[in-house]
Design goal:
Keywords: Membrane, Transmembrane, Transmembrane helix. By secondary structure, the protein is mostly helical. It contains twelve helices and no strands.
Length: 201
């Protein structure tokens, strides 16, 4: 963050000395901000190496990334500690839902999920909770509202698991992994690991 402000300062100083027009100063600032934001979130969104994503989240000072780091490592007490530090009310609630689902506290998870604003993540969460509770009618109702093909497919795979087609699901997850990046990649890897663990149990 320190270097970000230094770059902005010197860029604006140089443009000011060159008597550049205001629109050019604004444009340069927007480019610098865009590059900084892209670099800051790149691993979480676009990285293909799971270890690099985890390393990025481990080193991050952002509570939401810290939450995801501990969540994906099944360190749920530490994840809960970071949960309360997430500033965005929406992402704090959504992360809370994920934590409750991970702990199989589906009734509480459903209550929190219903409090989310209406969007794809709310319907995805409620559909996932419904399938875990064996409520196929609610599952179908919520799944219809999930338009994103990736999340919709994850719901369908979860339904297949509950229908006893776990091996088919594991095979499909294996083919999905090389084509995924960032948080989606970690989610699918973790889902696959959970299914394999169930097989061992």
């Amino acid at each position: 963050m320190f270097w970000f402000f230094i770059v902005i300062f010197f860029a604006d100083l140089l443009l000011g000395l060159m008597q550049a027009p205001v629109w050019l100063i604004i444009l340069v600032n927007l480019v610098i901000i865009s590059v900084y934001m892209f670099k800051s979130f790149y691993p979480f969104l676009f990285e293909k190496d799971p270890e690099k994503i985890m390393d990025f989240m481990k080193k991050s000072k952002h509570p939401q990334f810290q939450f995801h780091y501990y969540f994906f490592n099944d360190e749920l007490e530490e994840a809960e500690d970071r949960l309360h530090k997430i500033k965005s009310p929406f992402y704090r609630k959504l992360s809370h839902v994920n934590l409750l689902v991970k702990r199989k506290q589906y009734v509480e998870a459903e209550k929190v999920a219903r409090g989310l604003k209406d969007n794809m993540y709310k319907w995805y969460s409620l559909a996932g909770i419904a399938i875990e509770q064996g409520d196929r009618e609610s599952y179908r109702k919520y799944k219809e509202k999930v338009r994103n093909p990736f999340y919709r497919r994850l719901l369908e795979l979860d339904e297949m698991v509950h229908d006893g087609e776990k091996e088919k699901v594991l095979s499909e997850l294996e083919t999905m992994i090389p084509n995924l990046r960032g948080a989606k990649l970690l989610s699918v890897i973790q889902y696959k690991q959970e299914l394999l663990k169930q097989n061992e149990d």
